[in-house]
Amino acid sequence: MSVWDDLVGQDRVVEQLTAAAQAARATVAAGRTAAAEAGGNASLMTHAWLFTGPPGAGQTTAARAFAAALQCTSPDLELGGVPGCGFCDGCHTVLSGSHADVKFVRTDGLSIGVGDMRDLVLRASSYPTGGRWSVILVDAAHRLTEAAANALLKGVEEPSPRTVWLLCAPSVQDVLPTIRSRCRLLVLRTPAAEAVADMLVQRDGVEPETARLAALAGQGDVERARRLAVDEQARTRRLDVLRIPLEVGDIGGCLAAAQRLVDTAKADAEALAETQDAKETDDLRAAYGATEGSRAPRGMAGAVKELEKRQKSRATRTRRETLGVALLDLLGFYRDVLAIQLGAGGALANEDQRPALAKVAAAGAPENTLRRIEAVLACREALDRNVDPLLAVEAMTVALRAG
Asked: Are the beta carbons of 256 and 357 closer than 8 angstroms?
């Protein structure tokens, strides 16, 4: 399977990245000047790329596939094959995260600090060990602190001839103008529900009707659609969220719905902590040679404190992400309600919830629905400003009741 197959509904992006990977191969094989003189498309390759698009469209997937194509060693390339076969050692090690010349940067916390970015810029100044490209893929580049972004700018301004920066962000506005002006921009689009459903049927063996409903409910987020199609717990949590519009008839219902939503997010964070935090702590103790009941080795206390700080930040991010998914489901619900009220055609995102949608639509006017959509958006903004989650969600559910 080609590395490009996971990019659902992104044919234009695949075409551009494939051409760039071919140009990169020509650059390595013949030298930049020789490739240009030979009439090749070396100008299609550049040292910095910015991948943007709506949530779930596949920015990181596209960047990882491009990194694999740059390191592809398939014998078919000599016969005119397309880089990114998915089977060679170069592609396999990139996709598995073990390639020596590909650094994948993703923070579990709320931001990427300047210390980490300075280390990456230093790494970018060296040549690749395998003789091809040194690739640094920064997922969630919008989480860079101001100091980290300025450090990244240094690396992008003065690139090594064989280093490629791949930055992923929700939109071009989330990246400093000085950085984005030095990057080639690739904008991914929301994939069609039909394409997502077809992918679920062919690759995950999902029943066609289940795949169709999951693709619609995913609202263009490929990974979200996959989870809804194969994970019973994800489907149950979505249904819990979609009950909220029917439960906010009184203040007690509003507060109970808010508490349940926040408790679910907290449970997700705690479930992750049980498996991941304990392993990280054990690995740290093993690295310092600490044994049960013995005195902590010198320097370990500071490392443990730093680890606990990262784990706490990760737990906060997990809660926010869980609440974010729930709020997106609510937005989709009220958007469907508005479509019904206005008599719009086309499939609904929550096709499996038509009775509930019709009930809410009949109980109010489009103006009420618009105010409820604004309440959900206001809750998202409040969470981004670090407002206490329970207070933010309670304010939202009360506003949903008021309409």
From this structure: no
